[in-house]
Amino acid sequence: MNDQAQILPGTLDLLILRAVSLGPLHGYGILLRIGQISGNALFIEQGALYPGLFRLVRQGLLKANWGTSDNNRRAKFYELTDSGRNRLREETDSWNRLATAIASALSQQPEEV
Amino acid sequence: MNLLASLRFRIAMLFRRSRIQDELEEELRSHIAHRADDLERSGLDRAEAERRARIEFGGREKYKEEIHQALGGNLLATLLQDIRYSLRVLRKSPGFTFAAVLTLALAIGANALVFAVLNALFLRPVNVPHGESLYALQRGNDTYIIQSYPDYIDLRDRNRSFDSLAAYNITQVGFDTGKNPVSVWGYEASGNYFDTLGIHPYLGRFFHGSDERGANSAPYVVLTYGYWHSHFQGDRGVVGRQVRLNRHPFTIIGVAPPEFHGTLLIFSPEFFVPMVNAGQLDGTSDLNARGTRWVFEVLGHLKAGVTQAQATADLSSIGAYLHNTYPKDDDQSTFALVRPGLHGNFFAPAMRAFLAGLMLLAGLILLAACANLGSLFAARAADRSQEVALRLALGSNRTRILRQLFTEALLISLFGGAAGLWGGVVVLHWLSGWQPFPEFPMNIPVNPDANVYWVALLLALASGLLFGAVPVRQVLLTNPYEVVKAGSAGLIAGRGRRITARDLLLVVQIAICAVLVTSSMVAVRGLTRSLHANLGFDPRNAMLVDTDLKMAGYPDDRVAAMQRRMIDAMKAIPGVTSVGLVDTPPLHMGWDVSDVFTENAADLRPPNAAAHAILYKISPGYLQAAATALLAGRTFTWDDDKNAPRIALVNREFARKIFGSATSAVGRHFKMSDGTRLEVAGIVEDGKYTANLAEDPQPAMFLPILQSPASDTVLVLRSSPGSNDAAQQLAPAIRNKLRELDAGLPAFIQTWNEEMNGALFASRMATVSLGVLGLMGAMLSITGIFGMAAYSVSKRLRELGIRIALGAQRKEVLQAALGRAVKLLACGSALGLVLGILASRVLSYIVFQATPRDPLVLAGVVLAMALLGLVATWIPAQRALSVNPLILLREE
Fold it and tell me: What pLDDT shows up at residue B12?
């Protein structure tokens, strides 16, 4: 587990939106999906997911419905709303800009400054 | 989300809370089940899989808490939860809760009470429509509020700042409805009085400016609601009835509304008559005498838009006009506006100082109560450190725990505040109807209003936050792992022997209480001493009979003869040893002061006066009846009449001031302001004269009543020494004799001691209030020391057990258990005693002979504090001594 990175504060919401954008998922499924799309490089304590989920529902970015999972258990499925989709796009753009800027800053060689 | 939607959401959340809670539980269960399914698939058995899934999930309670926060709608819900939890905690320790609520109830109640009185007397306008714009006029140069009638008329007609100016004067008349005449207090009011104030009659009509058509032109009387109810049984047919006031016929024209008690606080009139008829009631008519100031107060509503400065400038220009036109009668005068109600600055300053002092003491009580509760709370927080540590370890955050502690503190303070306010309101209602003087109608309108409720609420919240804040640091510093590992004992051991905030709080609290105990003892002692002080007369075994021959319609030339007949009649009553007459007995409310001049003075204007002497008009025999000692010379006889040379008796202080020594004064002369030259016939002892026992020696003079007539007088009857009851039993005989002389003469009969209640009123009130506060201070220090001692014993039971097991003596055990509490008590008491002595200097202005440099008081305070300490540490000491080391050690 030690090679897993702690996620940056505030990025969990973005990861959740991204995970759900590929199709409706229940909480545990979202965790699995995040692991899958990040190559299991991030460590998220399982319970930490839920405050984020409830926050996003309250902000109207996600909507939730009870359904039945593949394991034949009752579970609450989350999917993106329209404003959630817009938010994901905006957040992705701004994250990319930030990441590029930081990456470029860090990759500068001393003589180039 | 906009505000409204958010609010709706929050409220909806409250109701849907349990459903959401269920859903959340189900969702988390579902999550763990899914994870367990996966783990099971990887080869674990189901039970192990579920255990692992739960561990991986993390702090479930913590996340649930965070989810609630994310939902935002649970501020209210958390509050309710906190309140429910706090109530449960408080119910679990009813003794603590009761003590805490009671402490606060007393402290907040005392504050609310004092504030309500302050509010009623100084902050709230008089109870008339638009009372906030009502002002009384006061002469700026001599701060004198009394005016002459012609000056009032000029002020009324010439000012441009007031809607109208009304005036009133206080009078006492013989009120005769056909049966026994009684003496009743009322107002002589200007015709426009009711119209100026905007008061409407409850029954019938009021008199108006248009009713005034010259002296004695408006023989009308308006009753107050209270008098109409008590003396006319609320008979609606009373309007139009004829009554006699001082034997002159008047017609009842109306009844004032129930809430109207005149425009003066404290004194409440029972009727109103037009001021133009004052001549009939007062005997002489001063309606045209510009130099005689007798109109008690002139008042009116400022016109809208006129500032106080504009009004005073306007009035002062009238003052200048009056001075230029009537230089003989009117000094150069500026005017100031003052609040009506307390008669300008006449008695306001003393009362304000006293109430401010009380407010300060009450504030100290509350502070002491907060210190008390603060240390109790800190002790409880220490006891609950296990619980707090456990909650922290389980993932609760410190903010939440603190919020819960504050909720507990605020609940206690609000309960205490409510209980205190309730008690305060009961006392205030009683105070509003209080009639301390039988001959003098009172109106103390101290009923609480919104201001009082707000202050009580604020005080409750502030004190809750104050004592709730004491354990904060303790909670913030709690290290959950240490506490759980070591148990609460580890926490105490780490604390050591240094001085803690709690010790400091206790010292402060005890110091405050000692201040209160000291001041109340100083006051009580002062009062008892003043009762035995040399007053210059002896109120024991003496009766006072207050009569006013004007009330029975006697013209001036028949007054003297009637007075002599009354004295002779009283002398004939068996048991009466001496009888005399005085216009106003000493220490009575209302006294005459006159300027006196040396014999050679030529310019008899007030600034040249050699002294202001209190003036008494007495009959022969008064000195014996009052038991005032004659030091030199002779007393008056019935031959000292208008035809005899003018003479006077003076007191020792007068002789010292005017003639330089008491012995040589007899036979020498002095002058009154009208130029009369008086010869000193004798010297009498000094005494107390004004209605204040704390006064310094004052010059006084006694003139023969035959040379300086007065019709409103008091007969003094001295009976042979015996019980006070014996004097009282004379009352029926006195009444019979008076009825034989004149059935229509109202008389008020009481013992001199009863009458003294008025003079002692201020110091009695001060003593009672300080006594109550001192008692509360004592109670607070008991609970404070008790709390501290009980806590330290219970914390150290194990240590004490070991000491006993190792053979410690009782003394050593007690020292170990209570030494600290006793030391703190001693420190606090010493500090409080010093502060109390300093504070008592202020007291000596109100309470006669209140001196803190009194060994009895010092000993009393030390003894009281020691006793308090003994009472408070008794139970904890017993507990420390009865420790059974075997049981204790086994328990651990």
Answer: 66
Q: How many beta-carbon contacts under 8 Å exist across A and B? A: 66
CA distance B704 to B618: 5
Of A28, A47, A73, the CB nearest to B59: A47
Instruction: Calculate the dihedral angle through the C-alpha atoms of B212, B216, B217, B220, rounding to the nearest 10 degrees.
Output: 90
Residues of B in contact with A6 (CB under 8 A): none
Contact (Cβ atoms closer than 8 angstroms) between residue B89 and residue B408 = yes
Q: What is the DSSP letter of B123?
A: I
Whether the Cβ atoms of residue B414 and residue B464 lie closer than 8 Å to each other: yes
Q: Which of A51, A71, A75 shows the shortest C-beta gap to B63? A: A51
Q: What pLDDT does residue B496 have?
A: 46
Rounded to a whole number of angstroms, the distance between the first and last alpha carbons of chain B is 58
Q: How many CB atoms lie within 10 A of CB A24?
A: 15
Q: What angle do CA B290, B292, B298 make, to 5 degrees?
A: 80
Report chain A residues whose CB lies below 8 A from the CB of B58.
Answer: 45-48
Domain range summary for chain A, segments of one domain joined by +: 5-107
Q: Which CATH number fits domain A5-107: 1.10.10.10, 3.10.450.50, 2.40.50.140, 3.30.750.24?
A: 1.10.10.10
Residues A29, A69 contacting (CB under 8 angstroms): yes
Quick check: A26 and B34 CB within 8 A? yes
Q: Is the pTM of this model over 0.80?
A: no
What six digits make up the tokens of B306? 């006129």
Would you state the torsion angle of the CA atoms of residues B786, B789, B792, B798, taken in this order, to the nearest 10 degrees? -110
CB within 8 A of B844, min separation 6: which ones?
B526, B694, B850, B851
Q: Give the Cα separation of B571 and B565 in Å (integer).
A: 10
* Token digits of residue B703: 């003139």
pLDDT tens digits along B249-307? 999 999 999 989 888 887 889 999 999 998 888 777 788 888 788 888 899 999 988 99
CA B752 to each of CA B81, B585, B714: distance values in angstroms, whole numbers, following the listed order = 65, 9, 11
What are the phi and psi torsion angles at A66 (to 5°)? -80, 140
Q: Which of B21, B31, B50, B60 to probe by mutation at the A interface, max A CB count within 10 Å?
A: B31
Count other Cβ atoms within 10 Å, centred on residue B268.
20
Task: Check if B22 contacts A (Cβ < 8 Å).
Answer: no
Q: What is the pLDDT of residue B484?
A: 63
Judging contacts by C-beta atoms under 8 Å, the chain B residues touching residue A46 are 31, 35, 56-58
- Chain B residues in contact with A71 (beta carbon < 8 A): 33-34, 37
Q: For residues B162 and B302, is the Cβ–Cβ distance under 8 A?
A: yes
CB contact under 8 A, A50 and B59: no
Give phi and psi for A11, each to the nearest 5. Answer: -90, -15
Per the CB < 8 Å rule, is B57 touching A52?
no
Average pLDDT of the segment spanning B345-356:
71
β partners of residue B222: B254, B272
Any A CB within 8 A of B20 CB = no
**Contact assessment for residue B79 and residue B17, using Cβ atoms and an 8 Å cutoff:** no
Percent over 90 (pLDDT), chain B: 26
B566-615 pLDDT tens trace: 999 999 988 899 999 999 898 887 778 888 998 888 887 777 888 889 99
Closest in A29, A48, A73 to B63, CB measured: A48
| pLDDT recorded at residue B725 | 61
Whole-angstrom CA distances from B56 to B50, B200, B884 are 10, 81, 49
In a 10 Å sphere around its CB, with 0-12 CB exposed, 13-18 middle and 19+ buried, how is residue B657 labelled? middle
Q: How far apart are CA B824 and CA B506, in angstroms?
A: 7
pLDDT under 50: residue ranges of chain A: 1-2
The answer to whether the beta carbons of residues B278 and B188 sit under 8 Å apart is yes
